[in-house]
Amino acid sequence: MADPTTDPKPEFSRMIALAKLEQGPITLNIWAEPEERLRIAERFGLISLDGLDAELEVTAIGPDSVRVTGRLHATLAQPCIASLEPVPAKVDDSFTVLWTEGAGWLDEDDLGLDIEVEGIVVEAHADTVDLGEAVAQQLALMLDPYPRVAAPGESELVVDISESEAEGGETRRPFAESEALKSLLKRLN
What is the CA radius of gyration of the chain? Predict the structure, then answer.
């Protein structure tokens, strides 16, 4: 797995100079090439990453801040947490990232935005921002933390309560007749 703190260039890098934003917002589409997708899949422990692209709008907010709003699309497979079998998934979600020179000071009033700052990623920047790395990080946040392959018939799970239990309040004890369990209970008590 690549370590972004020691790797000089992220596996999916799309740099944009802040000077390009002086004329106004920029709208662009970016996508990961096959080699980049392999490296991202390795970084995030994915079995496969068959597609990754994003539609972005990049806007300068004052002299020190940049806002990127976008929609991310990905087709991937994660390993099941129980069986390690592939769990196919599609990601289609929006996000917002803010870059600022003083990443700790950011709040709604300072930006003059009509949005909630909570849930928005805030990054420090120099004179460029890496849109590709922002998309890769957003993908990581959107992954299922506990991917699971559904067992056959699992979606049809039915809890069976007999009428006598439901009406009479009796508790059914399926192992009550087991001699081994009775013996064990005696030793524990």
Answer: 26
Q: How many domains does the chain have?
A: 2
Q: Do 136 and 162 share a structural domain?
A: no
CA distance 135 to 69: 10
141's enclosing H/E stretch is helix 131-142
What is the 8-class DSSP label of residue 183?
Answer: H
Domain ranges, residue 130: 15-142
Q: What is the mean pLDDT of residues 175-180?
A: 66
Please report the pLDDT score of residue 64 as a whole number.
76
Locate 94 and state its tokens.
Answer: 């929006």
pLDDT digits (tens, 9 = 90+) for 84-134: 999 999 999 999 998 877 544 444 444 444 444 444 555 555 678 899 999
With respect to residue 2, please indicate whether it lies within any of the assigned structural domains. no
pLDDT for 189 beyond 90: no
Report residue 146 as tokens.
């506990």
Same domain, 119 and 43: yes
Residue type, 45: G
Extended strands (E) in the chain? 15-17, 26-31, 48-61, 65-79, 86-100, 121-124, 128-130
- Are both 130 and 88 inside the same structural domain? yes
d(CA 41, CA 64): 33
- Interatomic CA distance for residues 52 and 134, integer angstroms: 12
